[in-house]
Design brief:
- This protein has 337 residues and is an alpha/beta fold.
- The chain contains 10 helices and 15 strands.
- It has a 9-stranded mixed beta sheet.
- α6 packs parallel to α8.
- The radius of gyration is 20 Å and the shape is globular.
């Protein structure tokens, strides 16, 4: 499949491109980026590709050569870029978050359905090897019935995607208005859905900007999900300096804990089993997870599955985040989802 990358920033260069380079079924044909230095960076890696400053120029001059548009722009620009791509009858892979609210989400889903194109959000945590392996352990009944989970996700400088744009765009142009729930909270909810399936029924949340920097975006969210007879407590923070993620799942017969590349399986009356699963949660970009996502995207295109689960999940997550913000504004009150 022939692909064009729109937005050649951190995610494109560190996550998407390394996977594309090692695949025979993906051919990178073009890159679009308004920043001169980023177009130059793309050409250094792919001297024979076409580069464009404007997405519209690519669609006008080279659309016939492209099957998939890979949108890696800051989230503020996702809506219009994805619309353009779908209306040009292209399949779309879009970095998370797909969009920032349910109204925008519904608009894009309707266009994708009308055009019979695949719209695929990059929920890459679903393909993290430790999460995949833990899901298999849960589904095989290793810890009995899951009852409680605790996720702690600490991510330094979570707006790294924006830093390459800010210096060369007008100072008054807002590049992000999602906050930590849209960034790390989205990943945590996606992990919960991968591990347990289904959907939560209620949420209680506290979302804060504790560091009081010039940014108005929140840097800490603590929320609890009542998830089909399970409680899931999640903390996401961008306050620290070192990215880290810890997951614990407790059931009637045992416990699974995930600490970066190690899974610890503790079953009643048995020695604790340590399982090494290379995952590298602290690696920026998580490029090693991306192949599973691309395999699933290509399968959706082949089977004409216009409702990939990551797209359905994106809508569920936007609902949850909306209710989380409502709960936080009301002192952490439980809110029905």
């Amino acid at each position: 499949m022939k692909i064009a990358i729109v937005g050649f920033g951190f995610s494109a260069e560190k996550s998407h491109l390394p996977a594309y380079k090692n695949r025979s079924d993906i051919d990178v044909k073009a890159v679009v980026d308004p920043v001169t230095s980023r177009r130059a960076a793309a050409l250094r890696q792919y001297p024979n590709i076409r580069v464009y400053e404007e997405f519209g120029d690519l669609l006008e001059e080279y659309s016939h050569e492209i099957d998939i548009i890979d949108v890696c722009l800051p989230s503020t620009f996702h809506l219009e870029s994805v619309k353009q791509a779908l209306e040009a009858d292209k399949h779309v892979l879009c970095e998370k978050p797909l969009v920032l609210n349910k109204g925008e989400y519904d608009e894009l889903v309707n266009i994708a359905n009308e055009r019979k194109r695949i719209l695929y959000p990059c929920h890459n945590y679903k393909f993290a090897p430790s999460i995949v392996h833990a899901t298999e352990l849960i589904n095989s009944g290793q810890i009995g019935k899951p009852l409680f989970a605790s996720f702690n996700i600490f991510g330094a400088n979570f707006q790294s995607e924006l830093s390459q744009w800010k210096a060369e765009l007008p100072k008054n142009q807002e590049l992000s208005n999602g906050g930590i729930m849209i960034d790390h909270g989205l990943d945590a909810i996606s992990v919960a859905q991968t591990l347990f399936g289904g959907c939560p029924q209620h949420i209680s949340a506290h979302i804060r900007n504790l560091n009081k920097t010039n940014s108005q975006l929140e840097d800490l969210a603590i929320f609890c999900l009542d998830w089909e007879q399970k409680l899931i407590n999640i903390t996401v923070s961008s306050l620290g300096s070192i990215p880290k993620a810890y997951y614990i799942i407790q059931g009637t017969e045992g416990e699974i804990s995930i600490d970066n590349n190690d899974i610890f399986l503790s079953v009643k009356n048995e020695p604790v089993k340590k399982i090494f699963v290379p995952t590298h949660f602290d690696e920026p970009g998580h490029g090693s997870w991306f192949n599973g996502l691309i395999d699933n995207l290509l399968d959706c295109i082949k089977t004409e599955n216009t409702k990939p689960f990551s797209l359905i999940e994106a809508g569920i997550i936007l609902d949850i985040i909306e209710k989380a913000n409502h709960s936080s504004k009301n002192g952490g009150a439980w809110v029905r989802i």
